[in-house]
Model the fold of this input.
Amino acid sequence: MQSAMLDDRRRVVMPKECPPHSAVTIQQVDDHSWLVRCQVPDRNVRVVAIPVIHRLADDPAWEKTEAEIAKAVVGRLPEPE
Done:
């Protein structure tokens, strides 16, 4: 590390491209080398809003299917201890 890149408290002075208080990752490569990377926020993020359903609508055909699935699975469940 060059002494020109340290301030009087031996803190590393980052280049102007890295704004103050930005998140960085420091990885030690060997005993005398460190890799410092500025973390750039991901700007390619999309937010999807999904409505909350508190109660499903009554569907007799689906309830019949659910009952058939439950009957088929009950036989394969292990006995309670």
Remarks:
- The beta strands are 24-30, 33-38.
- The chain has a mean pLDDT of 82.
- Helices lie at 60-74.
